[in-house]
Design brief:
The protein has a single domain, classed as 4-Layer Sandwich (Metallo-beta-lactamase, Chain A). The chain has four helices and seven strands, in the order ββββαβααβαβ. It has helices at residues 72-78, 92-98, 106-116, 132-148, and strands at 26-29, 32-38, 46-52, 55-60, 83-87, 120-124, 154-157. The relative contact order is 0.13.
Length: 172
């Protein structure tokens, strides 16, 4: 959230912000074990692998696939996740105009999730210029990519208020 990457100063955010620097890449929060992994994004950015008693969640809010699509470390990090919440900001055409910005596209997110054996992919980091129709189209496209590969990956878009319970889902 440094000024060169984040366009909004802290003073303008309507909240009380406490920043705790990431010192260890492996730590626990109660019964949940957390591993961090550097993301491919300008500046310092990390994604997280959360091992809870109910399942495994990986969260990468800002991440661009490595050029060439072969990112063994990322694949190993997200392998067999019950839920992967992944930066999927662009469609393929948009991504071509934004390569190097640190954000992914739906096609690459689906390919990565399928390769890693993820059960559910949640498309995240919606572009501010996308409306609900565009998000719905991205989800349909992602599901078509999964079907074309005869995959079992479930795909949805992140949305405000959505709750996913591992081992069973509850929507709010």
């Amino acid at each position: 959230m440094e000024s060169s990457y984040f366009p909004v100063p802290f003073a303008e955010l309507p909240s009380n912000i406490e920043i705790e620097e990431l010192r260890e890449f492996n730590f626990a929060i109660g019964p949940t074990l957390v591993r961090a992994h550097r993301a491919n994004h300008p500046g310092t950015c990390a994604g997280y692998r959360l091992f809870s008693p109910d399942g495994l969640v990986c969260f990468f809010p800002d991440a661009e696939p490595r050029l060439g699509g072969d990112d063994r470390e990322m694949l190993d990090f997200i392998r067999d996740a019950d839920v992967l919440i992944l930066d999927s900001q662009y469609d393929r055409a948009e991504y071509k105009k934004h390569t190097g910005w640190g954000h992914g596209c739906v096609d690459d997110s689906v390919a990565l999730a399928l390769q890693a054996g993820v059960k559910k992919l949640v498309l995240f980091h919606h572009d501010p210029d996308h409306d609900d129709k565009k998000i719905d189209a991205l989800v349909r496209h992602a599901r078509q990519l999964v079907a074309k590969q005869k995959g079992k990956l479930k795909v949805e878009a992140a949305r405000e208020g959505r709750v996913i319970r591992l081992g069973g889902e509850t929507a709010r």
